[in-house]
Amino acid sequence: MANVAVIGAQWGDEGKGKIVDWLAERADMVVRFQGGHNAGHTLVVGENVYKLSLLPSGIVRGTPSVIGNGVVLDPWALKAEVEKLGAQGVAISPETLVVADTCPLILPFHRDLDGLREDASGAGKIGTTRRGIGPAYEDKVGRRAIRVCDLAHLDDLGPQLDRLTAHHDALRAGFGEPPIDREALLAELRDIAGFVLSFAQPAWRLLNEARSRGRRILFEGAQGVLLDIDHGTYPFVTSSNTVSGTASAGTGIGPSGVGFVLGIAKAYTTRVGSGPFPTELEDETGTRLGERGHEFGTVTGRKRRCGWFDAVLVRQSAAVGGITGIALTKIDVLDGFEEVKICTGYRLRGETLDYFPAHAADQALVEPVYEAMPGWSESTAGARSWAELPAQAIKYVRRIEELIRCPVALLSTSPEREDTILVRDPFAD
Ligand code: GDP
Ligand code: IMO
Ligand code: MG
Protein backbone atom coordinates (compact mmCIF):
# COMPACT_ATOMS: atom_id res chain seq x y z
CA MET A 1 0.00 0.00 0.00
CA ALA A 2 1.54 3.26 -1.12
CA ASN A 3 0.84 6.84 -0.30
CA VAL A 4 1.00 9.10 -3.32
CA ALA A 5 2.70 12.46 -3.78
CA VAL A 6 1.60 14.63 -6.68
CA ILE A 7 4.12 17.19 -7.92
CA GLY A 8 4.32 19.46 -10.96
CA ALA A 9 7.00 18.35 -13.45
CA GLN A 10 7.22 21.64 -15.38
CA TRP A 11 6.68 25.30 -14.40
CA GLY A 12 3.38 24.79 -12.60
CA ASP A 13 -0.23 24.76 -13.85
CA GLU A 14 0.16 21.24 -15.23
CA GLY A 15 -3.27 20.18 -13.96
CA LYS A 16 -2.30 19.06 -10.44
CA GLY A 17 -5.67 20.19 -9.02
CA LYS A 18 -7.67 18.09 -11.45
CA ILE A 19 -5.53 15.00 -10.83
CA VAL A 20 -5.51 15.41 -7.04
CA ASP A 21 -9.30 15.79 -7.03
CA TRP A 22 -9.61 12.64 -9.16
CA LEU A 23 -7.21 10.64 -6.98
CA ALA A 24 -8.82 11.97 -3.79
CA GLU A 25 -11.64 9.51 -4.30
CA ARG A 26 -9.14 6.75 -3.46
CA ALA A 27 -7.45 8.66 -0.62
CA ASP A 28 -8.32 9.04 3.07
CA MET A 29 -6.55 12.35 3.43
CA VAL A 30 -5.12 15.07 1.18
CA VAL A 31 -2.18 17.17 2.43
CA ARG A 32 -0.53 20.31 1.05
CA PHE A 33 3.17 20.45 1.94
CA GLN A 34 4.73 23.61 0.46
CA GLY A 35 3.98 26.91 -1.21
CA GLY A 36 1.00 29.00 -0.23
CA HIS A 37 -1.77 30.87 -1.98
CA ASN A 38 0.51 31.49 -4.97
CA ALA A 39 -0.93 28.19 -6.20
CA GLY A 40 -4.06 28.09 -8.32
CA HIS A 41 -5.57 24.65 -8.70
CA THR A 42 -8.66 24.28 -10.88
CA LEU A 43 -11.26 21.54 -10.48
CA VAL A 44 -14.11 21.07 -12.92
CA VAL A 45 -16.97 18.92 -11.69
CA GLY A 46 -19.90 18.96 -14.07
CA GLU A 47 -21.11 22.56 -14.26
CA ASN A 48 -19.06 23.65 -11.26
CA VAL A 49 -15.57 25.16 -11.39
CA TYR A 50 -13.58 25.40 -8.17
CA LYS A 51 -10.37 27.41 -7.93
CA LEU A 52 -8.27 26.57 -4.91
CA SER A 53 -5.14 28.38 -3.81
CA LEU A 54 -4.49 27.34 -0.24
CA LEU A 55 -6.99 24.60 0.47
CA PRO A 56 -6.02 21.05 -0.50
CA SER A 57 -7.92 19.90 -3.60
CA GLY A 58 -9.46 16.94 -1.72
CA ILE A 59 -11.73 19.35 0.15
CA VAL A 60 -14.23 19.53 -2.71
CA ARG A 61 -14.94 15.79 -2.45
CA GLY A 62 -15.05 16.13 1.33
CA THR A 63 -11.84 14.13 1.79
CA PRO A 64 -10.24 15.24 5.09
CA SER A 65 -7.61 17.80 4.22
CA VAL A 66 -4.48 19.06 5.92
CA ILE A 67 -2.33 22.15 5.37
CA GLY A 68 1.11 20.94 6.40
CA ASN A 69 3.90 22.81 8.17
CA GLY A 70 5.79 23.43 4.90
CA VAL A 71 3.06 25.80 3.70
CA VAL A 72 3.26 29.55 4.36
CA LEU A 73 -0.20 30.58 5.50
CA ASP A 74 -1.93 33.89 4.92
CA PRO A 75 -4.72 33.82 7.54
CA TRP A 76 -6.92 36.29 5.65
CA ALA A 77 -6.49 34.38 2.39
CA LEU A 78 -7.50 31.21 4.25
CA LYS A 79 -10.64 32.83 5.58
CA ALA A 80 -11.57 34.30 2.19
CA GLU A 81 -11.11 30.92 0.49
CA VAL A 82 -13.10 29.02 3.12
CA GLU A 83 -15.92 31.55 2.62
CA LYS A 84 -15.68 31.39 -1.18
CA LEU A 85 -15.87 27.59 -1.17
CA GLY A 86 -18.68 27.74 1.38
CA ALA A 87 -20.67 29.94 -1.02
CA GLN A 88 -20.11 27.24 -3.69
CA GLY A 89 -21.62 24.64 -1.37
CA VAL A 90 -18.38 23.13 -0.04
CA ALA A 91 -18.73 23.21 3.74
CA ILE A 92 -15.37 23.43 5.50
CA SER A 93 -15.08 22.83 9.22
CA PRO A 94 -12.44 21.61 11.67
CA GLU A 95 -13.82 18.13 10.89
CA THR A 96 -12.63 18.37 7.29
CA LEU A 97 -9.68 20.78 7.52
CA VAL A 98 -6.61 20.77 9.75
CA VAL A 99 -3.89 23.43 9.67
CA ALA A 100 -0.47 22.54 11.09
CA ASP A 101 0.20 24.63 14.17
CA THR A 102 3.77 25.20 12.95
CA CYS A 103 2.90 26.91 9.64
CA PRO A 104 4.66 30.29 9.35
CA LEU A 105 2.26 33.16 8.66
CA ILE A 106 2.26 35.46 5.66
CA LEU A 107 1.56 38.92 7.07
CA PRO A 108 0.47 42.10 5.24
CA PHE A 109 4.02 43.50 5.17
CA HIS A 110 5.25 40.35 3.36
CA ARG A 111 2.82 41.08 0.56
CA ASP A 112 3.93 44.75 0.53
CA LEU A 113 7.58 43.76 0.28
CA ASP A 114 6.95 41.27 -2.53
CA GLY A 115 5.25 44.02 -4.55
CA LEU A 116 7.80 46.71 -3.71
CA ARG A 117 10.67 44.50 -4.81
CA GLU A 118 8.94 43.51 -8.02
CA ASP A 119 8.13 47.12 -8.86
CA ALA A 120 11.73 48.13 -8.19
CA SER A 121 13.20 45.37 -10.36
CA GLY A 122 12.08 46.66 -13.75
CA ALA A 123 12.94 44.25 -16.52
CA GLY A 124 14.71 41.94 -14.06
CA LYS A 125 11.57 41.19 -12.09
CA ILE A 126 10.67 37.59 -11.33
CA GLY A 127 7.01 38.04 -12.07
CA THR A 128 5.92 36.69 -8.70
CA THR A 129 2.28 36.31 -7.73
CA ARG A 130 2.85 39.21 -5.26
CA ARG A 131 1.32 37.15 -2.48
CA GLY A 132 4.27 37.59 -0.08
CA ILE A 133 5.48 34.02 -0.50
CA GLY A 134 9.21 34.80 -0.84
CA PRO A 135 9.40 37.28 2.07
CA ALA A 136 7.47 34.89 4.35
CA TYR A 137 9.84 31.99 3.60
CA GLU A 138 12.80 34.34 4.20
CA ASP A 139 11.48 35.07 7.69
CA LYS A 140 10.92 31.37 8.35
CA VAL A 141 14.52 30.52 7.47
CA GLY A 142 15.71 33.67 9.26
CA ARG A 143 13.97 32.38 12.43
CA ARG A 144 11.84 35.49 12.72
CA ALA A 145 8.47 34.13 11.62
CA ILE A 146 5.22 34.27 13.54
CA ARG A 147 3.60 30.87 13.31
CA VAL A 148 0.05 29.57 13.70
CA CYS A 149 0.73 28.41 17.27
CA ASP A 150 1.82 31.97 18.19
CA LEU A 151 -1.73 33.16 17.53
CA ALA A 152 -2.71 31.62 20.86
CA HIS A 153 -0.08 33.74 22.63
CA LEU A 154 -0.38 37.15 21.00
CA ASP A 155 0.09 39.00 24.30
CA ASP A 156 3.50 37.37 24.74
CA LEU A 157 4.89 38.15 21.28
CA GLY A 158 7.05 41.04 22.58
CA PRO A 159 10.69 40.29 21.71
CA GLN A 160 9.71 38.04 18.80
CA LEU A 161 7.72 40.87 17.23
CA ASP A 162 10.58 43.31 17.96
CA ARG A 163 12.99 41.20 15.93
CA LEU A 164 10.56 40.79 13.06
CA THR A 165 9.52 44.42 12.84
CA ALA A 166 13.11 45.69 13.24
CA HIS A 167 14.11 43.58 10.24
CA HIS A 168 11.20 44.74 8.12
CA ASP A 169 11.30 48.37 9.18
CA ALA A 170 14.87 48.60 7.86
CA LEU A 171 13.80 47.06 4.54
CA ARG A 172 10.74 49.29 4.34
CA ALA A 173 12.81 52.40 5.04
CA GLY A 174 14.93 51.48 2.00
CA PHE A 175 11.76 51.71 -0.10
CA GLY A 176 10.62 54.93 1.57
CA GLU A 177 7.78 53.09 3.35
CA PRO A 178 6.63 53.88 6.91
CA PRO A 179 7.48 51.44 9.73
CA ILE A 180 5.05 48.66 10.61
CA ASP A 181 2.20 49.77 12.86
CA ARG A 182 2.55 47.13 15.58
CA GLU A 183 -0.70 47.90 17.33
CA ALA A 184 -2.66 47.74 14.08
CA LEU A 185 -0.94 44.44 13.20
CA LEU A 186 -1.71 42.96 16.62
CA ALA A 187 -5.32 44.09 16.33
CA GLU A 188 -5.63 42.41 12.93
CA LEU A 189 -4.04 39.23 14.30
CA ARG A 190 -6.37 39.21 17.32
CA ASP A 191 -9.27 39.50 14.94
CA ILE A 192 -8.32 36.49 12.83
CA ALA A 193 -6.64 34.31 15.49
CA GLY A 194 -9.76 32.46 16.60
CA PHE A 195 -10.65 31.46 13.06
CA VAL A 196 -7.21 30.02 12.27
CA LEU A 197 -6.80 28.38 15.68
CA SER A 198 -10.09 26.53 15.24
CA PHE A 199 -8.35 24.44 12.55
CA ALA A 200 -4.91 24.26 14.19
CA GLN A 201 -3.45 20.96 15.38
CA PRO A 202 -0.12 19.17 15.57
CA ALA A 203 -0.71 17.86 12.05
CA TRP A 204 2.33 15.56 12.16
CA ARG A 205 0.58 13.50 14.87
CA LEU A 206 -2.61 13.20 12.93
CA LEU A 207 -0.73 12.13 9.82
CA ASN A 208 1.48 9.62 11.59
CA GLU A 209 -1.56 8.12 13.34
CA ALA A 210 -3.35 7.88 9.99
CA ARG A 211 -0.30 6.23 8.52
CA SER A 212 -0.04 3.68 11.32
CA ARG A 213 -3.71 2.79 10.77
CA GLY A 214 -2.95 2.11 7.09
CA ARG A 215 -4.81 5.18 5.82
CA ARG A 216 -4.00 6.37 2.31
CA ILE A 217 -2.43 9.80 2.25
CA LEU A 218 -2.31 11.93 -0.88
CA PHE A 219 0.31 14.69 -0.81
CA GLU A 220 -0.52 17.66 -3.04
CA GLY A 221 2.37 19.71 -4.37
CA ALA A 222 2.11 23.25 -5.67
CA GLN A 223 4.13 24.88 -8.47
CA GLY A 224 6.52 22.53 -10.29
CA VAL A 225 10.06 21.15 -10.24
CA LEU A 226 11.33 23.85 -12.62
CA LEU A 227 10.22 26.46 -10.06
CA ASP A 228 12.02 24.64 -7.21
CA ILE A 229 14.34 26.89 -5.21
CA ASP A 230 17.25 24.43 -5.67
CA HIS A 231 16.50 22.62 -8.90
CA GLY A 232 14.56 25.20 -10.87
CA THR A 233 15.50 28.02 -13.21
CA TYR A 234 17.05 30.12 -10.42
CA PRO A 235 16.47 32.97 -9.71
CA PHE A 236 13.19 32.75 -11.67
CA VAL A 237 11.70 30.30 -9.20
CA THR A 238 9.44 30.22 -6.18
CA SER A 239 10.85 30.22 -2.65
CA SER A 240 10.21 26.60 -1.65
CA ASN A 241 11.35 23.13 -2.63
CA THR A 242 8.68 21.72 -4.90
CA VAL A 243 10.24 18.25 -5.30
CA SER A 244 8.75 15.17 -3.67
CA GLY A 245 11.20 15.24 -0.74
CA THR A 246 9.26 18.17 0.63
CA ALA A 247 6.18 15.96 1.05
CA SER A 248 8.08 14.50 3.98
CA ALA A 249 9.72 17.60 5.50
CA GLY A 250 6.64 19.73 4.84
CA THR A 251 4.28 17.43 6.77
CA GLY A 252 6.27 15.60 9.43
CA ILE A 253 6.05 12.15 7.90
CA GLY A 254 9.33 10.34 7.30
CA PRO A 255 10.47 9.83 3.69
CA SER A 256 9.41 6.18 3.75
CA GLY A 257 5.83 7.41 4.18
CA VAL A 258 5.82 8.85 0.67
CA GLY A 259 5.41 6.02 -1.83
CA PHE A 260 4.49 6.63 -5.45
CA VAL A 261 5.50 10.02 -6.82
CA LEU A 262 3.17 11.13 -9.58
CA GLY A 263 4.63 13.93 -11.69
CA ILE A 264 2.09 16.00 -13.58
CA ALA A 265 3.14 17.21 -17.03
CA LYS A 266 1.23 18.96 -19.79
CA ALA A 267 1.51 17.45 -23.26
CA TYR A 268 3.18 20.77 -24.19
CA THR A 269 4.85 23.42 -21.99
CA THR A 270 3.69 26.65 -20.36
CA ARG A 271 5.22 29.17 -18.04
CA VAL A 272 3.83 32.23 -16.28
CA GLY A 273 6.22 34.93 -15.11
CA SER A 274 9.77 35.69 -16.25
CA GLY A 275 12.68 33.34 -16.88
CA PRO A 276 14.18 31.04 -19.49
CA PHE A 277 11.90 28.84 -21.59
CA PRO A 278 13.79 27.08 -24.42
CA THR A 279 10.78 25.77 -26.37
CA GLU A 280 8.70 28.94 -26.08
CA LEU A 281 6.78 29.75 -29.28
CA GLU A 282 6.21 33.43 -29.85
CA ASP A 283 4.38 32.76 -33.09
CA GLU A 284 0.99 31.58 -34.34
CA THR A 285 1.55 28.08 -33.00
CA GLY A 286 2.19 29.44 -29.50
CA THR A 287 -0.95 31.58 -29.73
CA ARG A 288 -2.93 28.56 -30.91
CA LEU A 289 -1.70 26.46 -27.96
CA GLY A 290 -2.62 29.28 -25.56
CA GLU A 291 -6.08 29.71 -27.03
CA ARG A 292 -6.89 26.00 -27.25
CA GLY A 293 -5.52 25.40 -23.75
CA HIS A 294 -7.11 28.53 -22.21
CA GLU A 295 -3.71 29.41 -20.85
CA PHE A 296 -4.42 32.23 -18.43
CA GLY A 297 -3.16 32.16 -14.83
CA THR A 298 -5.64 30.91 -12.21
CA VAL A 299 -4.27 33.27 -9.54
CA THR A 300 -3.23 36.41 -11.43
CA GLY A 301 -5.07 36.04 -14.74
CA ARG A 302 -1.78 36.59 -16.56
CA LYS A 303 -1.35 35.08 -20.04
CA ARG A 304 0.82 31.96 -19.87
CA ARG A 305 3.73 31.60 -22.28
CA CYS A 306 3.38 28.44 -24.43
CA GLY A 307 5.68 26.08 -26.31
CA TRP A 308 6.33 22.49 -27.37
CA PHE A 309 6.89 19.64 -24.91
CA ASP A 310 10.43 19.72 -23.57
CA ALA A 311 11.52 16.14 -22.88
CA VAL A 312 14.92 17.26 -21.57
CA LEU A 313 13.34 19.32 -18.83
CA VAL A 314 10.76 16.72 -17.84
CA ARG A 315 13.45 13.99 -17.79
CA GLN A 316 15.46 16.19 -15.44
CA SER A 317 12.37 16.89 -13.30
CA ALA A 318 11.62 13.17 -13.11
CA ALA A 319 15.17 12.52 -11.88
CA VAL A 320 15.49 15.28 -9.28
CA GLY A 321 11.84 15.03 -8.28
CA GLY A 322 11.99 11.28 -7.71
CA ILE A 323 9.03 10.77 -10.06
CA THR A 324 7.71 7.21 -10.38
CA GLY A 325 5.07 7.85 -13.03
CA ILE A 326 3.65 10.74 -15.04
CA ALA A 327 0.12 12.03 -15.41
CA LEU A 328 0.12 13.58 -18.88
CA THR A 329 -2.55 16.28 -19.14
CA LYS A 330 -4.13 18.42 -21.86
CA ILE A 331 -3.33 16.04 -24.73
CA ASP A 332 -6.64 17.24 -26.23
CA VAL A 333 -5.14 20.70 -26.74
CA LEU A 334 -2.88 19.17 -29.41
CA ASP A 335 -5.83 17.76 -31.38
CA GLY A 336 -5.82 19.06 -34.95
CA PHE A 337 -2.18 20.10 -35.14
CA GLU A 338 -0.70 18.80 -38.41
CA GLU A 339 2.65 18.30 -36.76
CA VAL A 340 3.75 18.12 -33.14
CA LYS A 341 7.29 18.64 -31.90
CA ILE A 342 9.23 17.38 -28.89
CA CYS A 343 12.49 18.90 -27.67
CA THR A 344 15.03 16.08 -27.30
CA GLY A 345 18.22 18.06 -26.56
CA TYR A 346 19.80 21.49 -26.62
CA ARG A 347 22.52 23.17 -28.62
CA LEU A 348 24.79 25.53 -26.72
CA ARG A 349 27.84 27.18 -28.31
CA GLY A 350 28.18 24.41 -30.88
CA GLU A 351 27.78 21.59 -28.34
CA THR A 352 24.83 19.28 -27.79
CA LEU A 353 23.47 18.94 -24.26
CA ASP A 354 21.10 16.31 -22.85
CA TYR A 355 20.40 18.34 -19.67
CA PHE A 356 19.51 21.90 -18.72
CA PRO A 357 22.63 23.83 -17.70
CA ALA A 358 22.72 25.60 -14.31
CA HIS A 359 23.75 29.11 -15.27
CA ALA A 360 20.98 31.57 -16.07
CA ALA A 361 22.86 32.94 -19.10
CA ASP A 362 23.30 29.43 -20.54
CA GLN A 363 19.67 28.62 -19.81
CA ALA A 364 18.62 31.68 -21.76
CA LEU A 365 20.94 30.79 -24.66
CA VAL A 366 20.25 27.07 -25.27
CA GLU A 367 18.49 26.26 -28.52
CA PRO A 368 16.12 23.33 -28.59
CA VAL A 369 16.75 20.34 -30.87
CA TYR A 370 13.36 19.09 -32.06
CA GLU A 371 11.95 15.81 -33.20
CA ALA A 372 8.81 16.28 -35.30
CA MET A 373 5.93 13.80 -35.43
CA PRO A 374 2.73 13.81 -37.47
CA GLY A 375 -0.20 15.12 -35.47
CA TRP A 376 -3.74 13.70 -35.38
CA SER A 377 -6.95 15.12 -36.77
CA GLU A 378 -9.29 13.01 -34.63
CA SER A 379 -10.40 14.23 -31.18
CA THR A 380 -8.95 12.98 -27.92
CA ALA A 381 -11.14 15.39 -25.94
CA GLY A 382 -13.14 13.60 -23.30
CA ALA A 383 -11.61 10.16 -24.02
CA ARG A 384 -11.93 7.88 -21.00
CA SER A 385 -10.12 4.81 -22.30
CA TRP A 386 -6.91 4.13 -24.14
CA ALA A 387 -8.90 2.49 -26.95
CA GLU A 388 -10.58 5.83 -27.73
CA LEU A 389 -7.26 7.50 -28.56
CA PRO A 390 -6.10 7.98 -32.15
CA ALA A 391 -3.05 5.85 -33.05
CA GLN A 392 -0.89 8.90 -33.63
CA ALA A 393 -1.72 10.34 -30.19
CA ILE A 394 -0.69 7.02 -28.62
CA LYS A 395 2.61 7.17 -30.53
CA TYR A 396 3.17 10.68 -29.18
CA VAL A 397 2.59 9.50 -25.59
CA ARG A 398 4.85 6.45 -26.07
CA ARG A 399 7.65 8.61 -27.50
CA ILE A 400 7.40 10.97 -24.52
CA GLU A 401 7.68 8.01 -22.13
CA GLU A 402 10.84 6.84 -23.90
CA LEU A 403 12.45 10.27 -23.90
CA ILE A 404 11.69 11.12 -20.28
CA ARG A 405 12.46 7.54 -19.12
CA CYS A 406 9.32 7.40 -17.05
CA PRO A 407 5.99 5.64 -17.64
CA VAL A 408 2.67 7.42 -18.07
CA ALA A 409 0.33 6.37 -15.25
CA LEU A 410 -2.60 8.68 -16.05
CA LEU A 411 -3.77 10.61 -19.07
CA SER A 412 -6.10 13.59 -18.88
CA THR A 413 -8.23 14.55 -21.86
CA SER A 414 -10.31 17.51 -20.63
CA PRO A 415 -10.71 19.73 -17.55
CA GLU A 416 -13.63 17.57 -16.36
CA ARG A 417 -12.92 15.29 -13.41
CA GLU A 418 -13.99 12.03 -15.08
CA ASP A 419 -12.20 12.59 -18.41
CA THR A 420 -9.18 10.73 -17.12
CA ILE A 421 -7.57 7.51 -18.31
CA LEU A 422 -6.00 5.29 -15.69
CA VAL A 423 -3.03 3.35 -17.02
CA ARG A 424 -1.42 2.34 -13.73
CA ASP A 425 -3.00 2.98 -10.32
CA PRO A 426 -0.50 4.95 -8.20
CA PHE A 427 -2.18 3.75 -4.98
CA ALA A 428 -1.84 0.10 -5.99
CA ASP A 429 1.96 0.26 -6.21
P1 GDP B 1 -2.52 23.28 -11.46
O1 GDP B 1 -2.01 24.56 -10.92
O2 GDP B 1 -1.42 22.33 -11.78
O3 GDP B 1 -3.59 22.66 -10.63
O4 GDP B 1 -3.20 23.65 -12.86
P2 GDP B 1 -4.20 24.89 -13.16
O5 GDP B 1 -5.52 24.55 -12.60
O6 GDP B 1 -3.57 26.16 -12.76
O7 GDP B 1 -4.20 24.89 -14.74
C1 GDP B 1 -4.60 23.77 -15.47
C2 GDP B 1 -5.80 24.19 -16.36
O8 GDP B 1 -6.01 23.19 -17.32
C3 GDP B 1 -7.08 24.30 -15.58
O9 GDP B 1 -7.87 25.28 -16.15
C4 GDP B 1 -7.71 22.92 -15.76
O10 GDP B 1 -9.14 22.96 -15.67
C5 GDP B 1 -7.29 22.58 -17.15
N1 GDP B 1 -7.08 21.16 -17.43
C6 GDP B 1 -6.61 20.19 -16.60
N2 GDP B 1 -6.49 19.02 -17.28
C7 GDP B 1 -6.88 19.26 -18.54
C8 GDP B 1 -6.96 18.46 -19.73
O11 GDP B 1 -6.62 17.29 -19.76
N3 GDP B 1 -7.42 19.09 -20.87
C9 GDP B 1 -7.78 20.40 -20.89
N4 GDP B 1 -8.18 20.91 -22.04
N5 GDP B 1 -7.70 21.18 -19.79
C10 GDP B 1 -7.26 20.62 -18.64
P1 IMO C 1 0.45 26.15 -9.27
O1 IMO C 1 0.44 25.39 -7.97
C1 IMO C 1 2.66 28.63 -12.07
C2 IMO C 1 5.58 31.39 -10.39
C3 IMO C 1 5.31 32.87 -10.53
C4 IMO C 1 6.73 33.40 -10.62
C5 IMO C 1 7.48 32.51 -9.64
C6 IMO C 1 7.66 33.09 -8.25
O2 IMO C 1 -0.86 26.71 -9.65
O3 IMO C 1 1.09 25.34 -10.34
P2 IMO C 1 6.02 33.41 -6.16
O4 IMO C 1 4.76 34.21 -6.03
O5 IMO C 1 5.87 31.97 -5.86
O6 IMO C 1 7.18 34.03 -5.43
O7 IMO C 1 6.41 33.55 -7.74
O8 IMO C 1 6.72 31.31 -9.55
N1 IMO C 1 4.50 30.60 -9.75
C7 IMO C 1 3.69 29.78 -10.41
N2 IMO C 1 3.57 29.52 -11.72
N3 IMO C 1 1.89 27.95 -11.19
C8 IMO C 1 2.02 28.17 -9.87
O9 IMO C 1 1.36 27.44 -8.94
C9 IMO C 1 2.91 29.15 -9.42
N4 IMO C 1 3.26 29.63 -8.21
C10 IMO C 1 4.24 30.51 -8.42
O10 IMO C 1 4.57 33.15 -11.69
O11 IMO C 1 7.25 33.17 -11.90
MG1 MG D 1 -2.15 26.60 -11.24
Automatic annotation (TrEMBL):
IMP binds at D13, E14, G15, K16, N38, A39, G40, H41, T129, R143, Q223, T238, R302. Pfam families: Adenylsucc_synt. Its main location: cytoplasm. The active site is at D13 (proton acceptor), H41 (proton donor), K140. Keywords: Cytoplasm, GTP-binding, Ligase, Magnesium, Metal-binding, Nucleotide-binding, Purine biosynthesis. GTP binds at residues 12-18, 40-42, 304, 330-332, 412-414. Mg(2+) binds at D13, G40. It is found in: Cytoplasm. GO terms for cellular component: cytoplasm. It comes from the Bacteria. PROSITE patterns: ADENYLOSUCCIN_SYN_1, ADENYLOSUCCIN_SYN_2. It is an enzyme of class 6 (ligase). GO terms for biological process: 'de novo' AMP biosynthetic process; IMP metabolic process. Its EC number is 6.3.4.4. Substrate binds at T298, V299, T300, G301, R302, K303, R304. Its cofactor is Mg(2+). Pathway: Purine metabolism; AMP biosynthesis via de novo pathway; AMP from IMP: step 1/2. Homodimer. Belongs to the adenylosuccinate synthetase family. This is Adenylosuccinate synthetase. It comes from Sphingomonas aracearum.
